[in-house]
Design goal:
single chain, 352 residues, alpha+beta, Outer membrane lipoprotein wza fold like, wza like fold, five-stranded mixed beta sheet, 22% strand
């Protein structure tokens, strides 16, 4: 249940942090505002949607599109050599001219253009064979009736995809090579953090979920790779959740796939001992200025499926010994844990 606006609580938390930084011995007592199990389940269902859904829940600043980029085959680049076959019954001389060039050298794509007999140079780089063929067909149709042109690759310029964080750093691609093939050849660490890994093209991050591709066989993520693409493979510790408070083994737990069930995280930290209050399980999501806080009870959690109780990277699970009624005490408990988390896994929240 929501008792007060979250912005009011964020403002109060900010004041408390500043007071503690200035060395104050005491701080005013404020009421708590938390979200219930129902809200946690709703957010967990969104987390289960994968990387893009988690980024949306985080209000990530980068704009991510809901679908991956379209598949693109046979992209032409500088250095490619094409064969061109012209079928034109009324102009056999033109047909023979193209055939002779095909046999000797083919047609080189240079300075992003291709020169075909009797035509102005046509911009070709970045087009597919089908697209270039349509342009050439339209240009020849203006000069001759009943003619058709067919293009194919005679020789392809070498293309490479760079992989950072894998055993093999450069993988050749031919315009039909898929992302899954490149990943297989790169020999990445089987425990790599796929949630934080990403694909760059022309300086922009593509909305690709590598976990869905590799572990769930989602072919919609299996884009065709282009020369110059970059794949960044993150370390296993680059995303984690923190379990702290009244647990035997407070720890940062790596989350290489973007989510982990809450019950699993608590069990890995040693469970809830007699000093912990099973009715006071807090999940803190977001930065310390604008957090979203859930208060949960173990008796409720045991009846809910794991997929409806998901943590995402950056979450902090605090097992308290009693209900939190003093915000300053809560902040003091939380700050050492978050500092440890930042140092151990390199996650830094931006305070705006």
């Amino acid at each position: 249940m929501r008792n007060k606006p979250l912005k009011l609580i964020a403002h109060r938390m900010t004041r408390l942090v500043l007071i503690s930084m200035l060395g104050a011995c005491t701080a005013p007592v404020y009421e708590n505002t938390v979200y219930s199990l129902e809200e946690f389940i709703i957010d967990s269902q969104q987390i289960a949607g994968g990387k893009q859904a988690i980024l949306a829940l985080e209000e990530h600043e980068t704009i991510y599109h809901p679908e991956p980029p379209p598949q693109e085959d046979d992209i032409i680049i500088d250095g490619d050599v094409l064969s061109a076959v012209l079928f034109c019954p009324k102009r056999p001389d033109r047909t023979e001219a193209l055939q002779r060039i095909n046999q000797c050298t083919g047609f080189l794509v240079s300075e992003e253009k291709i020169s075909l007999p009797h035509l102005e140079p046509i911009p070709a780089a970045g087009l597919t064979l089908v697209e270039l063929q349509q342009y050439a067909q339209a240009a020849y149709a203006e000069q001759m009736q009943d003619c058709q042109i067919f293009l194919s690759f005679k020789k392809r310029s070498e293309r490479y995809v760079q992989i950072i964080g894998a055993e093999v750093g450069m993988i050749p691609v031919d315009g039909r090579t898929r992302l899954s093939e490149v990943i297989a050849k790169a020999r990445i660490n089987p425990h790599a953090n796929l949630f934080k890994s990403y694909v760059m093209r022309n300086g922009e991050s593509l909305p690709i979920d590598l976990y869905k591709l590799i572990h769930q066989g989602d072919d919609s993520q299996n884009i065709t790779m282009r020369g110059g693409d970059q794949i960044f493979i993150a370390n296993v510790s680059d995303a984690a959740v923190m379990v702290t408070g009244e647990v035997p083994f407070p720890m940062a737990i790596p989350v290489p796939y973007g989510a982990i069930p809450l019950r699993e995280a608590i069990v890995r930290a040693g469970g809830i001992p007699y000093t912990g209050n099973k009715n006071c399980i807090y999940v803190v999501r977001g930065d310390m200025v604008r957090p979203k806080i859930y208060q949960l009870a173990w008796r409720e959690l045991i009846h809910v499926p794991n997929l409806s109780l998901l943590l995402m990277p950056g979450d902090i699970v605090l097992i308290s010994e009693r209900p939190i009624t003093e915000w300053n005490r809560f902040i003091n408990q939380l700050q050492p844990s978050t500092g440890c988390l930042y140092q151990s896994i390199g996650i830094y929240n931006t305070v705006k």
